[in-house]
Write a sequence for this structure.
């Protein structure tokens, strides 16, 4: 599964885009993905918040993921 | 076109009045956010802005649409800079124009407040000996 | 100088950002009032502004001082145009810059609201077949 | 007494500055001046408000007038 990372998320994983190997167990939902990420990179648990965008729209925890979705990890935004 | 939405390397503050001007507008309200040299008593050398551009533009359009729906506005501008910005550089410009001033003031405040909450743009503060992603940690 | 107060023939909206910019300001709020083509369903051809200049400048300085006292502002601008103004022309510019945005928004709104109440400037609306001094009669 | 007139006040008296003859009975206070003006030009009574500035400061009704004061008649302002 291809994932995009921004801001501090990019620093945590060390790349802006990676093909993530979840040990063959691909996350089915946004909620699964967040859990898998936090397991692999404990730093994500320390952030003020963690959001996921699917095809450049904010996605709730229960949104199901398709293999061709553009999935982005959104740490706390701080524009302006 | 009643909205102008942009993510750019360099913000030009001189064009915004022209962009918001409208024969039916008696009031134009503009907010410009700029780089402040001191944060929490520490000297900021520069800010670095990063964005998820396709999504940020979508969110900025949504934001403008909500404002256009909520208030009676003739024009809306939302522009954000990316890349490295020095002290006093403009980093964001939001503005609205309307027949009467209350609408453009309220809309302008809404635009900047909501942009800061929803638009995927990230700011790193560069201090002398460290750099910090703003708001990342509680 | 933390305040810029002017009464001029032609307002230049391009300089106000530079004038309000300050290394300790993270926010700049500007309001521009401009000539609207329709008032009470009637087409406005132009506005004519007249002022008691020495007193108007005094009142504008007082206004800026009250704002500087009430909010933590780094800069304040108040400029008003006089003479004949056409549709879409800017007629007044007020603005303030501050460390955080709430102060500059509140101050900017205060400046325009109070200017309209206290500063001796008079506006005549020129319609096709008549002209009216605004607010003169109940 | 020299008086300055602006906006609709100028239209009512037909001049921007006049040496007003109050029949030898010079008004002593702002209040007196307003009454004298309204007597002479009834149109002043129809305005939304009428203020007086003495030496370019708003002056209350009880302010006393001196012969060398700069006195201005201020109809309802409408800047902005």
């Amino acid at each position: 599964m291809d994932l995009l990372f921004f801001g501090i998320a990019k620093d945590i994983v060390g790349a802006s885009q990676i093909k993530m190997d979840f040990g063959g167990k691909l996350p089915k939902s946004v909620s699964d993905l967040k859990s898998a990420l936090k397991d692999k990179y404990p730093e994500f648990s320390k952030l003020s918040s963690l959001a996921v965008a699917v095809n450049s729209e904010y996605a709730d925890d229960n949104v199901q993921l398709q293999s061709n979705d553009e999935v982005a990890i959104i740490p706390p935004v701080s524009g302006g | 076109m009643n909205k102008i939405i942009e993510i750019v390397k360099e913000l030009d503050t001189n064009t915004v009045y022209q962009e918001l001007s409208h024969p039916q507008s008696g009031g134009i309200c503009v907010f410009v956010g700029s780089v402040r040299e001191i944060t929490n008593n520490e000297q900021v050398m520069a800010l670095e802005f990063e964005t998820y551009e396709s999504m940020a533009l979508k969110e900025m359009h949504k934001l403008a649409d909500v404002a256009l729906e909520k208030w009676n506005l003739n024009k809306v501008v939302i522009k954000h800079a990316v890349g490295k910005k020095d002290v006093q550089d403009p980093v964001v410009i939001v503005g609205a124009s309307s027949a009467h001033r209350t609408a453009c003031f309220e809309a302008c405040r809404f635009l900047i407040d909501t942009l800061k909450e929803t638009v995927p743009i990230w700011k790193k503060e560069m201090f002398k000996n460290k750099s910090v992603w703003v708001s990342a940690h509680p």
